[in-house]
Amino acid sequence: MTKGKISKQTKSRLIILGPLSLVCIIVFIVSLLYNLVTIYNLTIEKKHLEEKYLELQQEADQLKIDIEKFNDEKYLANYVREHYSYSKEGEYILKIVDDVNDTNETIDKISIELNRNYVIIALSIFFILLFMFIFIRRKNKRN
C-alpha cells in the first residue's frame, strides 16, 4: 500500500462506521441537552414547590392560632358579631359602606372613556376637513 491511498476495506469501514458514529454522537448530544433541560425545569419546580410549602406551613400555623382563639368564647362572640352581623340584646347593627374608592374608580374609567371618545371625534373631524381641503384644492387646480 502506498501513501495517500486508502484500501477498499478501510473505505467500507469508514462508510459504515462514520455515519454510525455520527448518529451516536448526535443521539448523545440530544440526550444530554434533554437531560439538562429536564434538570433545569425540575430545579425551578423544586424551588417553586419549596416556596409553596413554606406558604402552606405559615397558613397552617395561622390556622392553629385561629383554632386556639376560637376556643375562647369572648373572642368567638366578637368575631361572629363583627363578621356575620349578629348582635346582643339591645344592640343595633349599622353598616357603613365605604364606596368612595369604587366611585372614584368608576369616575376615572368614565373620564378615560370620554377622553378617548373626544380624541376619536377630533381625529375624525380633522381627517374629514383634510380630505375636503385636498378635494377642493384639486377641483380648483382643474378649473
Count all strands and give the number. 0
Unreliable spans: none
* Intertermini distance: 97 Å
What's the order of the H and E elements? Answer: HHH
- Morphology: flat
Mean pLDDT: 84
Biggest sheet architecture: none
Q: In DSSP terms, counting alpha (H) and pi (I) runs of 4 or more, how many helices?
A: 3
Helix content: over 70%
- β-strand amount: under 5%
Coarse structural class: mainly alpha
Could you tell me the radius of gyration in angstroms? Answer: 40 Å
Count the domains. Answer: 2
In short:
The protein is an all-alpha fold. It folds into 2 domains: 8-94; 97-143.
Overview of this structure, please?
This protein has 143 residues and is mainly alpha-helical. The chain folds into two domains: 8-94; 97-143. Helices cover 83% and strands 0% of the residues. The chain has helices spanning 8-70, 73-84, 100-142. The radius of gyration is 40 Å and the shape is flat. The mean pLDDT is 84.
Features:
143 residues; mainly alpha; 2 domains
Give the arrangement of secondary structure elements.
Layout: H1 8-70, H2 73-84, H3 100-142
